[in-house]
């Protein structure tokens, strides 16, 4: 049977129930991706899919009998393993669905109005030598780390951020995480990088490097000892920044090209989006 015969046969069996069937499956796939969007598990899912697709193509092209048999008989095991791996994400999604609040539809984080607020705050903190770490969420969700802190869901302002990092305050030791132009949480715990070096001498710098190694987040750090300002992104850190360079880096990383007002945008190697 040729390709067109197969297509014609499939269309001949197409009924109204088929539309409902396709729509239901599409919704289920969309919800599955939605529940993973707010976590780092989406990278793990992407890796699993890439490995499986590569194995299938390899077995088909090279006619590898054993690999083909293994793939065909491993499907039931995958159905059991996947819910175990993504159990926290599934539980969190069902909890959010059961609430009466806002439905968690995905949105692209835009920080056009927040960059200047954070830059002004960081410069003030640097002058007073108040240590701080502020993290911008990008494509990779940071909900796992937001859950470790105190949830705020507040509009960012210089006064608010300076108060959170005021010495000896309850939340000054943790990180502030920004999500969709809102201060999602403060006092958050971030993973520490295993790297060593002079630029990673403090815990804040190691935490900023750690979150940039595991996600695509952008972290701004103020050293409590020296007041120096650094930015960590893409597993790299740029230190000793002044006001113009800080604003330029943040805007190049966080603001889409179509939203940028400045004709010249400083961009450093290793920190491009």
Describe the fold and architecture.
- The protein is of the alpha+beta class and 273 residues long.
- The protein has two domains: 3-98, no CATH class; 115-259, DNA integrity scanning protein, DisA, N-terminal domain (YojJ-like (1, 3-Layer(aba) Sandwich).
- 49% of the residues lie in helices and 13% in strands.
- The protein has eleven helices and seven strands.
- It has helices spanning 3-12, 16-37, 41-62, 65-73, 75-85, 87-98, 115-128, 143-146, 158-164, 203-214, 243-254, and strands at 132-136, 150-154, 175-179, 182-188, 218-222, 229-233, 236-238.
- The protein has a seven-stranded mixed beta sheet with strand order 2-4-3-1-5-6-7, sandwiched between helices.
- Helix 2 (16-37) crosses helix 6 (87-98), helix 3 (41-62) crosses helix 4 (65-73) and helix 7 crosses helix 9 (158-164).
- The protein is elongated and about 75 Å long.
- The N and C termini lie far apart (48 Å).
- Mean pLDDT is 80; it is low at 99-108 and 259-273.
């Amino acid at each position: 049977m040729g390709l067109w015969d197969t297509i014609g046969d499939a269309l001949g069996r197409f009924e109204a129930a088929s539309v409902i069937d396709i729509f239901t499956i599409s919704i289920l796939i969309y919800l599955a991706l939605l529940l993973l969007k707010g976590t780092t598990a989406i990278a793990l899912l992407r890796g699993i899919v890439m490995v499986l697709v590569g194995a299938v193509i390899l077995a088909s092209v090279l006619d590898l009998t054993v690999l083909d048999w293994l793939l065909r008989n491993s499907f039931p095991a995958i159905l059991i393993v996947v819910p175990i791996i993504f159990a926290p994400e599934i539980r969190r999604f069902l909890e959010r669905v059961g609430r009466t609040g806002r439905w968690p539809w995905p949105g692209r984080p835009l920080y056009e109005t927040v960059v200047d607020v954070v830059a002004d705050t960081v410069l003030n903190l640097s002058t007073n030598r108040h240590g701080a770490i502020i993290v911008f969420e990008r494509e990779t969700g940071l909900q796992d780390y937001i859950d470790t802190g105190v949830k705020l869901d507040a509009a960012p302002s210089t006064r608010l951020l300076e108060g959170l990092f005021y010495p000896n305050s309850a939340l000054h030791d943790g990180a502030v995480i920004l999500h969709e132009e809102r201060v999602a949480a403060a006092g958050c715990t971030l993973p520490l990088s295993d790297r060593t070096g002079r630029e990673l001498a403090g815990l804040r710098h190691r935490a900023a490097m750690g979150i940039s190694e595991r996600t695509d987040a952008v972290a701004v750090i103020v050293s409590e000892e020296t007041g120096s300002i650094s930015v960590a992104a893409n597993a790299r850190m740029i230190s000793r920044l002044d006001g113009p360079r800080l604003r330029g880096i943040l805007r190049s990383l966080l603001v889409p090209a179509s939203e940028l007002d400045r004709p010249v945008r400083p961009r450093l190697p290793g920190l491009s989006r």
